[in-house]
Amino acid sequence: MIKYEHILVVMDPAAETQPALHRAVSVAALQQQADITLFMPIYDFSYEVTSMLSSTERSEMREGVLQSQEEWLKTLLTPYADSAIRFNVKVVWHSRPFEAIIQQVQEHQHDLVIKSTHKHHLIQSFIFTPTDWHLLRKCPCPVLLVKEQDWPIGGNVVAAVNCGSDDEGQAALNHKIIAESTEVARLLSAQLHLVNAFPITPVNLALELPDFDPQVYNAAVKRHHERIMYEYAVRYDLESSALHLEEGLAEEVIPRCADELNATLVILGSVGRTGLSAALLGNTAEQVIDKLSCDVLVLRPDPTS
């Protein structure tokens, strides 16, 4: 497993349970040494607009709130009093949580952010906050989004790769995903599965080009993906039964395979588009994550020199 020595856990002040903290302890236990920072950005606009109080009094009230929350976080560490893991607690006053988290990551060189997501009981799906999406697009280190389930020994880990691009950066990201997935699967005594989706034959090509043969085109695309997946399988010593190549959109194929395999964890990459490109094209990783019922580890490409 990529060595995560400085883990940042985003705590939820409104939650009765803190699955992100539980998962962080599990991840830290897999390392030879690690420290965990319990981090919570809070903000209450009423403290900013109370005209009856002076700025000094408002500042003192904010400090009182911060201290109270820090004491509460420390009580959550009681079950881990005998742990060898080093714990830190930090509460900050910030109106934009994702900015506070990213600033903390950059200033203190955290190498993993862990945050929980929540199931909406009325629609039986997980709800992702704007903070989640901002972290996926902008956080400089890997982000682990945690659901309310354990990581059983002997389960299935899914590595989702994109074999349809000849871009060197995408190939490097694929290798990073598979290498991390291989190590996680080893530590959990789990079975690693490689999942890749190849595109559906464009209908417009068949209509616009009289000599276009969709079956020949589809077979050629599939062979291209099969060749790359075979190369990955050889390099990482994967059995053919662990390779899953399906036609369709990645945001449909990956969640379906994860459900069929009852995956414990899905590991995928995100290029983290922002701005207009994100609005027009979307982020495949985000569309996939929104449909998964298991934990998701999102890796970013390594920075270019």
Would you mind describing this structure in some detail?
There is one protein chain. The protein has 305 residues and is of the alpha/beta class. The chain is built from eleven helices and twelve strands. A ten-stranded mixed β-sheet has the order 3-2-1-4-7-12-11-8-9-10, sandwiched between helices. The chain folds into two domains: 1-148, 3-Layer(aba) Sandwich (Rossmann fold), CATH 3.40.50.12370; 150-305, Rossmann fold. Mean pLDDT is 84; it is low at 120-124 and 275-282.
What characteristics describe this protein?
single chain, 305 residues, alpha/beta, Rossmann fold, 2 domains, ten-stranded mixed beta sheet, 42% helix, elongated
Strand order of the largest sheet: 3-2-1-4-7-12-11-8-9-10
Q: What is the CATH class name of the largest domain?
A: Alpha Beta
Segments where pLDDT lies below 50 for 5+ residues?
120-124, 275-282
C-alpha Rg (nearest Å): 22 Å
- The count of strands amounts to 12
Order of helices and strands: EHEHHEHEEEHEEHEHHEHEHHE
Q: Tell me the count of domains.
A: 2
Annotated CATH architecture of the largest domain: 3-Layer(aba) Sandwich
CATH fold type of the largest domain: Rossmann fold
Overall pLDDT metric: 84
Q: End-to-end distance, in Å? A: 24 Å
Largest sheet: 10 strands, mixed
Globally, the shape reads elongated
Structural class category: alpha/beta
Helix content: 40-55%
